[in-house]
Amino acid sequence: MSGMSRFFIQTYGCQMNEADSEIMARILQRAGYEPTDAPEEASIILLNTCCVRAKPEQKVYSRLGELRPIKERRPEVIIALAGCMAQKEGQALLKRVPYLDLVIGTHQFHRIEEFIHSCQQGGRRICVLGSEDDPSIARHELAAQTKTGANLKAFVPIIRGCDNNCTYCVVPSVRGRQKSRPLHEIKAETEALTARGCKEVTLLGQNVLAYGRDLPVNADFVSLLESLQDVEGLERIRFTTAHPRDVDDRLIEAVAGLPKVCEHLHLPIQAGHDRLLKAMGRGHTTDYYLEMVEKIRAKIPGVSITTDIMVGFPGETEEEFEASLKLYEKIGFDQAFTFVYSPRPGTPATKLPDQVPQKAKVTRLNRLIELINASALQANASQVGRQGEVLVDGVSEKDPGRLAGRLRNNKLVVFPGKEDLIGGLISVTTTAAHMWGFTGEVSQQ
Ligand code: 5AD
Ligand code: SF4
User: Fold this and answer.
1) Where residue 130 falls among pLDDT bands split at 50, 70, 90?
2) pLDDT score of 1 more than 50
3) How far does residue 162's CA lie from ligand 1's centre (Å)?
4) CB atoms within 10 A of CB 339
């Protein structure tokens, strides 16, 4: 292959996008292209995009601006845009960005090879959005995984799209109605991954707890977790994201009882006041969330609970924000992703009165981050001196003299150790707590 047959992929947004990028990378590799992390030497430049807030969109537009000189120097380069922004903007992107060659929606990314060839051969500019009912996506997905070589950890999409109607969220309109993958395909993919050395899978979906509701056969998320227990070589199962409304006793018992399922739940709360939760269309109350957390902690020793929180939803008053902070403090989250509400065109919340001024949003965000940092540190401090199982990921990024890995509850531990421990499961004792996790040492049994 000449030096020009390389592809560059940059991914924005959530883990589902990372998983989709991985599939596209595998498809391009099978077609004979080599990956590169330098767009200057690529013949295919692909941005896999996100539109959940205005910020990731702005990042993509400025990235496209940076790529323009490359296209001017080498007009044969294909610049492609996939993912949620592609689905949302469609043809308008080709108009707005005259040097963009290809726009691929969220239901068509598995056909990337074919579209790139059309661009290359026909010299045409293409926009394909397709339909969420295209069944070919699943076949390609599974096929993409049969390449040799796997990582220690892998994402496995189990359900795409979303049937919820959160009033702030653009995702259902760009990813379509929920579509669960058949259970046997998920299992086959997990087996193919573990046969090649993968030890941990993260099951992905906009709401994994809705898994199976759209399938003709009787399958639900807990039955999927149960069925993955006997996958040989699989040590750990994680999953994200879970809608709090769909948490029930059966799920809690499964996380508590199934040996391979890790003790971590990511349960986006979004707001901590009943009026806000109602206006967001979340389908539960603050009392419900509190009771759920108590039940989870009582039944699953060592569990960590993380969340997503938004500030500045339309109409959010100072009092409602204060009440929310109080609730978050009471819950004591192990960690949280925090966001400023960003009005998304076409969603119901953009039409609500009393949009919160930007200045107040930023002040609230900073107060929230402060609280979450304190809460993470406090949660970690209460766990110093404990032994726990760590899957060793590799050399620590921040401290190359040490190793890094994650406890079952997903917390990061950095500790001294020989590189031959990488890829294995070992017992580590935590010695000091930080906001980001722990320092520790290999346990002396
Ligand atoms: N503005 C800000 N944050 C949002 N999220 C989703 N939509 C918006 C929006 N319009 C956040 C939610 C969600 C996470 C993935 O992104 O917290 O859980
Ligand atoms: Fe972004 Fe949502 Fe699309 Fe993920 S599903 S890439 S978070 S818009």
Assistant:
1) confident
2) no
3) 14
4) 19
